[in-house]
Amino acid sequence: MCLPVRQYPVRVPALTELLPETLSAWGNAPLWDREYVELRCIPSSHRETPSHAFQRLASFLPIFPGANVLDAGAGSGRHAVYLAARGCRVDAVDASGAACDLLRERLAACSELAGSVRVQRGVLSRGDLPEDTYDVILDSYVSCHLLSDDDRLNYLHALLSRLRRRGRLYTACMGIDDAYYRSHVLDAGPGPLVTADPLNRIRKLLQPRATFGTTLGDLAPTVVTTAASFRDAVAGRLYDRQVLGAVLHRR
Does 57 fall in a domain? Predict the structure, then answer.
């Protein structure tokens, strides 16, 4: 039986050591290490079940024994472990050493998954992706940390280029109607909005539900989109949350 993950003992960086909070959280390992080890503000940081949007869209992904999967920004591994348990071979990449250690500990407690997940610490960019190709690529709440929509779409385009024939890309982000993040937006307008979480300084690009699928459709053929709404607690207070998800395939 797989055991729950415990808090992994790594040194917590002081706030003064963090990269400037005015920058994207993309690749900011000290910022993410602090979130995973000490703050734990993001409810999903230590969850073991797949996200709401992923659960809705998993049936549209080619998940089968032997499928090659890239979990780009795997965090503590809730999707990587789920996919490995279904026979997939997973490359799990994350900038945070703390997140990688949590995933390795989870895998160590699941002997039946030995060798199914390759955990790598690193920052992926559109110019620096694995040489391998994949049946499934996951972008679960990751590209939203690129604060320019052009940068986000260029990155997703690069991920699409690493898909095998008939491969599919799963992408998910927070919607602008998410009650928690909406209360902390830094800009205004009908399009994507930048928010700054006051609890951990991590910024995100929120997407409008009305244009989310259309924008992605301009990038690649869209198989399906979803908007998942649910109640969730942040710092002990319940909020109405909104997650947008989509499955794409390369042209």
Answer: yes
The closest of 79, 109, 112 to 94, measured between CA atoms, is 79
Q: How many domains are contained in the chain?
A: 1
Q: Record the pTM.
A: 0.91
For residue 60, count CB atoms less than 10 angstroms from its CB and return exposed for 0-12, middle for 13-18, buried for 19 or more.
middle
pLDDT in tens, 33-91: 999 999 998 988 889 999 999 999 999 999 999 999 999 999 999 999 999 999 999 99
Indicate if the pLDDT at residue 231 is higher than 60.
Answer: yes
Closest CA to 174 of 185, 163, 160, 161: 185
Whichever domain contains 66, its CATH number is 3.40.50.150
**Is 13 inside any structural domain?**
no
Cα separation, 85 vs 67, in Å, equals 12
Q: Which one-letter DSSP state was computed for residue 105? A: H
Q: Which domain holds residue 40?
A: 20-249
Q: Is residue 141 part of a domain?
A: yes
Q: Is 28 within a domain? A: yes
Question: How far apart (Å, rounded) are the C-alpha atoms in residues 111 and 129?
Answer: 29
Q: How far apart are CA 78 and CA 81, in angstroms?
A: 6
Residues 6+ apart with CB under 8 A from 139: 72, 73, 156, 159, 169, 170, 171, 172
Q: CB neighbours (10 Å) of residue 86? A: 14
Helix (H) or strand (E) holding 132: none
